[in-house]
Input
Amino acid sequence: MTELIAVALFTLLAVISPGADFAMVTRSSYAQGRKAGLAAAVGIALGVQVHVLYTVLGIAVIISQSPALFLGMKVLGAGYLIYLGYKSLTNTQRISLEGGSQSAASALQALRTGFLTNALNPKTMLFVISAFTQVVQPGSSLKLAFAYGAFMSLAHWLWFSLVAVFFSSTALRKAMIDRQVLVDRVIGLALIGLGLAVAVTGIR
Output
């Protein structure tokens, strides 16, 4: 029970803290609609499972003990965030509230972007590693470890689904679309700033 409470607290703090996942879901929800925002939330939850998988299987030990490998992951994750930020910052396509934004293609693209944003995020990697090393004791069963991982994904999915529903509401979408240039620039700068922070500073 103590382990479960600790995992829940770790996950809650990690999920609600603003970051790349939040910015990306916000952008997908207001620009492409609720279906895309919810798909992005699913993608994020699936991305968490990438970190859970290699942590449980022990690859995280190799990553944490190999500065070169960890640096490569940092650079890759930072580059992807900067790329997303640049796309938002330089976007010239006007969004229409009634446009065909609810298509299956938009939802699939949002799911893929959500997955990559989380799977390539070294902060999520460190969160998962920290959570497991702090609360999972030596000798714990794989079933229990994967159950904790499933809980982490579920928490991410629930939170970002709420974010998607909020930012895809008609009134808020209209207000943000009316100020699309400003919103895109704010989100773009936020993503670029997060990417640069990952690339330039040490993650503690």
About this structure: DSSP finds ten helices and no strands in the chain. The mean pLDDT is 82. The two ends are 28 Å apart (CA to CA).
